[in-house]
Design a protein that fits this description.
The structure is a single chain. The protein has a 6-stranded mixed sheet with strand order 6-9-10-3-11-12, sandwiched between helices. It has 2 domains: about 5-235, Rossmann fold; about 255-490, Rossmann fold, CATH 3.40.50.300. The protein is built from 17 helices and 24 strands. Helix 13 packs across helix 14.
Length: about 500
Amino acid sequence: MDNLLLVRDLTKTYPGVLALDCVSFDVRPGEVHALIGENGAGKSTLIKALTGAIEPDSGQIEYDGKQYDKMTPAQSKQVGIAAIYQEFNLAPSVTVAENIFIGSRLNKGAFVDFKQLYAQAERVLSNFNVKISTRAKVDELTVAYRQLVEIAKAIAQEAKLIIMDEPTAPLTEDEVVNLFEIVQRLKKQGVSIIFISHRMDELFQISDRVTVMRDGAVISTYETAEVTKAQLIKDMVGRELTENYPGRSVQYGDVVLKVENLHGNIVHPISFELRRGEVLGLAGLVGAGRTELARLIFGADRKDGGSIYVDGKAVNINSPFDAVACGIGLVSEDRKLDGVLLRKSISDNITMPILKRLSNWLMLNKEKEKHYVNKYTDALHIKTPSIYQLVGNLSGGNQQKVALSKWLAAECKVLILDEPTRGIDVGAKQEIYQLINQLAEQGIGIIIISSEMEEILGMSDRLLILSEGQLMARLEREDFKQTTVLHYASGEKE
């Protein structure tokens, strides 16, 4: 059999959107096939069609020698297709073993045979060369271990095709290495992998072939060893991107934010200043305290001490409401959890911080609301058929733009961006970078947190480097080097 999976002319339309445009795609037995494309390219829709989450309008799916006009979730699971999404599908309050065999029958009479359950779970986990207690509850595990439980679930279901959607996004470098070793073992066992990722360098490490999608259609398929990163990017965005990090003329204004001895949670006393028009980077390894520092400034976590000044005036920030009133906005690293309201419209999300400004007494001025929403939807090039579209129906890049629009509408003086390009594609990243520069040129003080070394070095004017909640070093742009950043991020002092 040449192909485990063969998709022919799959088409899916939504009101105003052609999500899949006669897509043809194949996966061979025991291969890692990377699937890439900008947010909104059609990757998620294709995966949903394969797993039975949606029904295509037309086309055919051939899997393991049998033909299907559509898949149902039960049918997909039965034939051996498993998907591991960015938001894990686990029951957090029960054990690892119970999650691995959830939906399976391991009964002794009317009761679950827990001895058999734990023994079989341990056999499945032995594939991974890692130690996870099968009796541990999932909510006690790190993100990396939860991901391994998802993979173990797929193996226990005897999946022949595993779809991994952005599997490395939440992982450290060491955890990525371990994941890739597991993928290689699965390949040797004949399991096929569809690997979706925006991290281009990883695709060249792990995949055998790569397929590019754009605007709901398949643009190209290559043997990974025979294609360049530049060609893939060109296919993805439909144009050549000549520079990764757009330059700008830096003209700092007065100090807009001053932090003195701020501490709380894992953050030790930290002091720094941010000027108008400056992009200040917070660098560090996972667990360094970058997000915790941002949350202290924004009032999302309680501070134990320290002072915050905005435009030279001491401010008392005990909640996000206080921060917004002082002109501080935060685009969080988890946009789906606390960056946007997925079940609300673009309009509702953008106007959320400025409802008082748009209201006359108790009535919302609809015309003024529409004006603001259209202004920022156009300015940020948010792709949507309507400003009343639910944010949950947008691509990741467009969701991030909605999160940014919310704070632009609030006319923030200080904007904190925590992992602003995580999980979005190359083209959308370029738009976010351009926007950050435009905001800085307008005099907004920006704090950016990023785990991507090139991004934090490419976008920042100045760097603060944290390790285990402590400020280890301050670097001016002329001193930026990866080795220097890693030296301080690993705990070495200036």
